[in-house]
Amino acid sequence: MLLSKPTIDDYLENGIYGQKQTKPDERRKFLGTLRERIVIALTQSQVREKGIYKEVQDHLKRHPDAKLLLNGNMSYTFLSKYIKLADTYHVSFSMVTNKEIETDIGLVLAYDHAIDQEEIYVQKKSEKVIEAKSKPKKSLFSSIKNKLF
Length: 149
Fold this sequence. Notes:
It is a single chain. By secondary structure, the protein is an alpha+beta fold. It is built from seven helices and four strands, in the order ααβααβαββαα. It has helices at residues 8-17, 24-29, 44-48, 54-62, 76-88, 125-133, 140-148; strands at residues 38-43, 67-71, 92-96, 105-110. The protein has a four-stranded mixed beta sheet with strand order 1-4-2-3. It is elongated, with a radius of gyration of 22 Å.
């Protein structure tokens, strides 16, 4: 199969609109990378929480060749703890800023090739606590009925 040479129109289109990208919506959501390349991801609200996620720390230790991508639209105050962590484990990082695009993703640890990690999202700390405590509650009526009968 022969590939056709780029035409003048192709060069002009690249100059005006930039290089054509695969899965542009996915790239916008995941700070310029693809879902299949991600090791772990945090939402913006998770990045804003106090402290750091142990899962992120563990993955930074285990994947020193990956790159940490941080949402540059977020305040540096929230991102700095993860930047320091990346420095500690000698993981390179980049701030990704795109004012036109809104994404709920705050942080992504990704490779430049596909790794197809099945689960990339970390459960929120508060959700873990809620799951452990949630037991079906008996209604007041049913508890009174059980005592009477």
